[in-house]
Design goal:
Rossmann fold, 20% strand, 13 strands, 7-stranded parallel β-sheet, alpha/beta, elongated, 6-stranded mixed β-sheet
Length: 357
């Protein structure tokens, strides 16, 4: 019989990490596992899990030393009879260490998505972790710098479901933009319209590209028309139906400037949308530069503006990049991700059986 897996995710927002937890839980349930996901009360993850019919428990996790949360999770581990505990972020990692103090033979799996070594209690007790799952080569290298034995680390890239879009959103009609406008969908922390990154890039674009480009910003609060450095734009806000929304753009502008897992990049390539992004740790393994998209030096807004201007004006090159995207994205399927995680569960259980004999 498949073991029961207790997942822990402390995130209060809906980001790439939470999406991966949902996809993994659904994939495991389809393989006869019994997942229980511990997540923040009222979080988008809890809401989506419940809609999907996946068992969830809402627990507030305020910090690494939240003993109240650790006691609640310890009780869940006992009553659920969890065979494996899987922590999906740094805070969940720390709390899981405390919750498992009296259960040394329950495997602890930790996913790391950031290119920073473990700190504090997480670093002090890394030996308690049975297996680390690094979302990228950069995350793996950071674990090694933190003193983790490379033999205990496995790279498991994020998985994204193959998109099925019957009708892409027609942003030109919705926003009353001309037919020859090139729609640039903007995601990532730098897409915040109150910040300076998007503005800095837009104002450095060539005059011809600025006249032809139109901007859709995804995420954040509020919706409606606005301008960014003279470029007509529209705030789409949080979009539930992401694939149809992305399918309606011509270029994905990914403005994350720090660690991330970049599932929007995979989504875009799967939809035949060429992405452009900074050389952020974790992203460079996803996008094939000059074949499926463009990667520019980290933090170089002038280079980003030049590359974006070129893509806006080079219709043939955009189509060429787009044509290679689906094959590239297929390397990052949900099925492959679940396969890799399931294999690590089996490996962890085997290691614990040896340790307990």
């Amino acid at each position: 019989m498949a073991p029961r897996i207790l997942h822990i995710d402390s995130g209060r927002e809906w980001r790439g990490g939470q999406r991966q937890v949902l996809l993994l839980a659904r994939g495991l349930r389809q393989r006869d596992y019994e997942p229980l996901v511990v997540a923040a009360p009222g979080s988008p993850l809890v809401q989506r899990l419940r809609r999907a019919g996946i068992a969830t428990s809402a627990v507030t996790m305020r910090g690494d030393w939240d003993l109240v949360a650790a006691r609640r999770i310890r009780a869940l581990i006992r009553t659920w009879n969890a065979g494996i505990v899987h922590a999906h972020d740094a805070r969940a990692h720390a709390i899981a260490l405390i919750a498992l103090l009296d259960r040394p033979l329950v495997p602890l799996i930790v996913t790391r998505r950031i290119a920073q070594p473990p700190r504090g209690i997480r670093r002090q007790y890394t030996a308690r972790v049975t297996r680390f799952l690094a979302a990228s080569e950069a995350a793996r290298d950071a674990l090694v710098r933190g003193g983790v034995d490379p033999g205990r680390i496995e790279i498991v890239h994020p998985g994204v479901p193959a998109p099925v879009v019957e009708k892409p959103r027609d942003w030109r009609t919705e926003c009353r933009w001309p037919d020859d406008a090139v729609i640039c969908g903007v995601v990532g922390g730098g897409a915040d319209v109150d910040g300076s990154l998007l503005w800095s890039i837009a104002e450095r674009m060539s005059p011809d590209a600025r006249r032809r480009a139109r901007v859709i910003t995804f995420g954040g609060a509020g919706t409606g028309a606005y301008e960014v450095a003279g470029v007509q734009a529209f705030r789409a806000g949080v979009v539930d139906e992401l694939h149809p929304a992305l399918a309606g753009v011509d270029v994905l502008v990914h403005l994350a400037t720090s660690d991330g897992i970049g599932t929007a990049l995979i989504d875009a390539m799967a939809l035949g949308i060429p992405p452009i992004t900074f050389a952020v740790p974790g992203f460079t393994a996803l996008v094939d530069p000059r074949r499926t998209g463009v990667i520019v030096p980290h933090g170089d807004t002038s280079a980003f503006a030049d590359a974006l201007s070129h893509l806006v004006l080079a219709d043939t090159e955009r189509r060429t990049l787009a044509s290679h995207g689906p094959a590239r994205s297929a390397r990052f399927s949900v099925e492959r991700m679940v396969d890799r995680v399931e294999g690590e569960y089996r490996r962890a259980l085997g290691a614990m059986q040896v340790a307990g004999s």
